[in-house]
Amino acid sequence: MNKSLLKSSLRRLYRSLVNFRHIELDSKQLEGSAIIFAPHQDDETLGCGGTIIRKKQAGADLKIVFMTDGSSSHSLIDSQELKAIRREEALAAAKKLGVEPWDVIFLEVKDGKLSNNIMPTIQRVSNIIIDFLPQEIFIPYGEDGPPDHNVTNHIVIAALKKCEFSATIYEYPIWFWNHWPWTQGTSKEKNLLSFFKSNLIPELNLQKEFRTSVYIGDVLERKQAALNEHKSQFSELIPHPHWWTLQRVSQGEFLECFLQNYELFCQYKIRGI
Ligand SMILES: [Zn+2]
Question: Residue 8: which domain range?
């Protein structure tokens, strides 16, 4: 067995072992109404697509809120054109997940600039929460990595506190997955200390924080179909060697993290005053 095959086999073994440690939500627990907040058009499907499908099957009322307009993912295309494309892709993906267009909200903050619009966005998110009064809120992990992801978390938590609203929070990882052993890790690690910092510490946090799971093994095909609707992120809209796709991240291992039998969440409650 060659070295890379051995490594990927060990990774697969590790993944199957850690899946036993999670507390799995049952069908009854999936009935709660929820708002899924996504920084960009694809994060909702990557992080919670299977859970959205299962919650809709359980009869839950859901809304998806996109924080940014997604217009900065590719520089090879006009940003206004990309914004329109990603909006259509998001609606098509939502449809595949079982969410109708009228339950999808676009806040259209400029992609990459959420941190420049914190206060007005807290107000807009508060208004949405008060209008819908969800039992559950889905947000990216607060230390997911990209600024729009971390700031989405902070804005929604601040909005909940502002309107003194109680809800169960489910934080989902996206870019936080991109560390060893889930992927080969980044290629920047030059020594053992930096490898430890950028892989083992995140992994210990992942195991400590993400203890709630939703089984999505029976809806994986539908999740994949929804992902396929985000064509700008998965295929070269303009044939060009620099057109970035999600398949290229960590040689495809990053994408594999979202097509496992379980979606993982860090679950906790926020209580209004
Ligand atoms: Zn994103």
Answer: 3-270
